[in-house]
């Protein structure tokens, strides 16, 4: 038992010594010394870097003072970049030292924690030792008491007495020994853990010392490079300063030489200065006299300008008088030219054959032209050649522009205050609508006429102020329809103007003032949308009504105060084919009857005008009644007869051309004694008094 206690005491002593040894070995004095050395070295390097920068600034100042182009700025910039790189490297090493310092602090904290644990283990070991000492003392006292007790006489009994007490004590000591063995096992395990942590800390310290040695070597190398750079910079600085001093001396010498030359020039310029002084005094006297000379020159210039203005004014008055005379002469000549050509002029236009018609069997052209005379048209009908003489014949290849060039002189007459009428006549599908309206890319007479009027009005704008208004009327089944109104189905009537002028007018007819081609396009779109069309055997989109574009041009002469008003009627007549050929039925038949009636009335008016009858039946039709002011008096009329060259349409073409020849022989008169029909069977015809006409009276 005593041996076991002694062994425990020896083990506790050995553990205490081992703890003291570990504690002494784990001291951080070397690491702290290395850290302090690194910090001192870092501060020294910073100081050297600051001194390098100050030297660099001095070198920059010396380089600025140097004016020679041979200064080694590139080398200085390279050294500056090298210093920046060294500074960056130093900063990286400083950050690495800081990281090492943090790792060292962490290791120190771990060592402190290990020391604290060792102290705690030592304290527990001391407590256990004290407890063991107390128990040992108790055992010794108990043994002493047992020794003082008298021995039993018989060995057997003594052994039995000693055996009972000893067993009891031994059991207790064994229990205590087991507890101490468990505590010793725990202490050994804790000691092994502390030894493991100690080994880890020693290995970490070894790695840190190795890294510190590496960084110290790198810092020594960087320090050596910095010292070499500093030495090179110092030498370069001295060399640059010496060169700058030499250049400054040479420049100073040159300045002195230039100064001597300037002094010589000043001595030579003194006579010239005296001459300039004299000239300056003369100019000063002239400047003092300049206001008087300027006033005199301005007065003379004003007199000359006034004289020139007076002469120009007289010349302008003479030019204005000549201009007015020439304008009147031009107007008279223009009217005489139109009159000599015939007040009712007749043009013929032959439409081209379409691709579908060329592919068909009936594609032979029955019309031919005279190469020497563009007013002759030949037509082959039933084996006979018929000759028609008109004012102008347009072949199929004629363009819209060529057609308009022939009629534009007639259109400009409305600007001078005349009534002008241009109407397209012919069977359905002969090209009437194309000639009058055209297409978007190639417009017809309607749009070109308005553009021409705009151009003429613009040219006369300084002296004349014109207003152009447009109306569109449709005569459908002998009923007037306002194509530009809000309700095109409203019926209109033709009446005499109550102002006593004898002119006709249509109450409620919409008139739109146009000022640009865009306005014209909007007006035409609205009128076309409201016009009535239908399908017949001759044309899929046959116009079933007469369309009238009425253009009124009102002018005012700003200089003379004269006023003019002319009217241009552009008429797209409905198809003139016979009812049997058109194949119309039902409502289409009634439309055809009304169309033929109005065209027959137009023929009657033409015959009356041709025969110079005292009575002209204008009121027999809405069409002729509305065109009365354009078919009589000093009005100017042009008929564009449209024909088809196909054999299937020869009969209709012959009728159209014969009617055109009769119209061409009509001579309108400006005599005011001619009596027009102002009273007939009714004040105005209506669609209820329709007379069925099967064919035109040709």
From TrEMBL:
Main subcellular localisation: other
Signal sequence bounds: none
Coiled coil regions in record: 5-149, 177-243
Protein name: Kinesin-like protein
GO biological process: microtubule-based movement
Taxonomic lineage: Eukaryota, Metazoa, Chordata, Craniata, Vertebrata
Source organism (scientific name): Amphiprion percula
Assigned GO CC terms: adherens junction; centrosome; cytoplasmic vesicle membrane; kinesin complex; microtubule
Recorded topology in the membrane: Peripheral membrane protein
Cytoplasm is among the record's keywords: yes
GO molecular function, one term: microtubule binding
Location(s), subcellular: Cell junction, Adherens junction; Cytoplasm, Cytoskeleton, Microtubule organizing center, Centrosome; Cytoplasmic vesicle membrane
Stretches for region Disordered: 668-698
Pfam families: Kinesin (PF00225)
């Amino acid at each position: 038992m005593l041996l076991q206690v002694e062994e425990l005491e020896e083990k506790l002593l050995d553990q205490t010594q081992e703890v003291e040894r570990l504690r002494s070995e784990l001291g951080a004095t070397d690491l702290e010394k290395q850290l302090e050395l690194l910090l001192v070295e870092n501060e020294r390097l910073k100081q050297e870097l600051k001194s390098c920068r100050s030297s660099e600034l001095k070198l920059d100042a010396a380089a600025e003072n140097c004016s020679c182009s041979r200064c080694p700025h590139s080398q200085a910039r390279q050294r500056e970049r090298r210093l920046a790189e060294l500074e960056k490297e130093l900063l990286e090493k400083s950050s690495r030292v800081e990281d090492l310092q943090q790792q060292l602090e962490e290791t120190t904290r771990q060592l402190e924690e290990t020391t604290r644990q060792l102290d705690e283990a030592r304290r527990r070991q001391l407590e256990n030792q004290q407890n063991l000492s107390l128990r040992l003392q108790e055992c010794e006292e108990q043994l002493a008491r047992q020794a003082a007790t008298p021995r039993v006489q018989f060995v057997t009994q003594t052994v039995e007495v000693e055996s009972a007490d000893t067993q009891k004590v031994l059991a207790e000591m064994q229990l205590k020994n087991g507890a101490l063995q468990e505590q010793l096992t725990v202490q050994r395990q804790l000691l092994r853990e502390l030894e493991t942590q100690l080994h880890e800390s020693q290995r970490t310290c070894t790695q840190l010392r190795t890294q510190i040695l590496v960084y110290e070597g790198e810092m020594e190398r960087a320090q050596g490079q910095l010292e070499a750079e500093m030495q090179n910079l110092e030498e370069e600085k001295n060399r640059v300063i010496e060169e700058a001093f030499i250049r400054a001396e040479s420049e100073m010498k040159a300045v002195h030489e230039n100064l001597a030359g300037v002094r010589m020039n000043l001595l030579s310029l003194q006579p010239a200065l005296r001459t300039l002084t004299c000239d300056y005094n003369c100019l000063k006297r002239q400047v003092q006299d300049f206001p008087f000379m300027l006033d005199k020159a301005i007065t003379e210039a004003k007199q000359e300008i006034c004289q020139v203005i007076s002469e120009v004014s007289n010349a302008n008055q003479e030019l204005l008088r000549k201009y007015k005379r020439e304008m009147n002469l031009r107007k008279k000549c223009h009217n005489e030219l139109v009159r000599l050509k015939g007040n009712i002029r007749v043009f013929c236009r032959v439409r081209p054959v379409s691709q579908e018609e060329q592919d068909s069997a009936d594609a032979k052209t029955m019309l031919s032209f005279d190469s020497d005379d563009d007013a002759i048209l030949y037509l082959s009908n039933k084996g006979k050649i018929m000759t028609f003489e008109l004012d102008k014949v347009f072949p199929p290849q004629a363009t819209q522009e060529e057609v308009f060039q022939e009629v534009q002189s007639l259109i400009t007459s409305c600007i001078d205050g005349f009534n002008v009428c241009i109407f397209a006549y012919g069977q359905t599908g002969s090209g009437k609508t194309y000639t009058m309206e055209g297409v978007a890319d190639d417009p017809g007479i309607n749009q070109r006429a308005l553009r021409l009027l705009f151009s003429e009005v613009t040219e006369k704008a300084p002296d004349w102020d014109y207003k152009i208004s447009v109306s569109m009327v449709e005569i459908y089944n002998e009923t007037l329809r306002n194509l530009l109104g809000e309700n095109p189905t409203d019926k209109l009537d033709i009446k005499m103007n109550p102002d006593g002028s004898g002119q006709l007018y249509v109450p409620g007819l919409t008139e739109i003032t146009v000022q640009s081609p865009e306005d014209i396009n909007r007006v035409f779109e609205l009128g076309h949308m409201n016009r009535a069309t239908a399908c017949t055997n001759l044309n899929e989109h046959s116009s079933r009504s007469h369309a009238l574009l009425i253009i009124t041009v009102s002018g005012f002469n700003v200089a003379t105060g004269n006023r003019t008003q002319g009217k241009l009627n552009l008429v797209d007549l409905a198809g003139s084919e016979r009812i049997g050929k058109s194949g119309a039925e039902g409502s289409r038949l009634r439309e055809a009857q009304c169309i033929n009636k109005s065209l027959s009335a137009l023929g009657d008016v033409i015959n009356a005008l041709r025969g110079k009858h005292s009575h002209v039946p204008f009121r027999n039709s809405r069409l002729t009644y509305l065109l009365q002011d354009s078919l009589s008096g000093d009005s100017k009329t042009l008929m564009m007869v449209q024909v088809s060259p196909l054999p299937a349409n020869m009969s209709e073409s012959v009728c159209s051309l014969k009617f055109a020849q009769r119209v061409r022989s009509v001579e309108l008169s400006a005599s005011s004694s001619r009596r027009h029909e102002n009273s007939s069977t009714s004040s105005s015809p209506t669609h209820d008094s329709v007379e069925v006409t099967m064919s035109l009276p040709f």
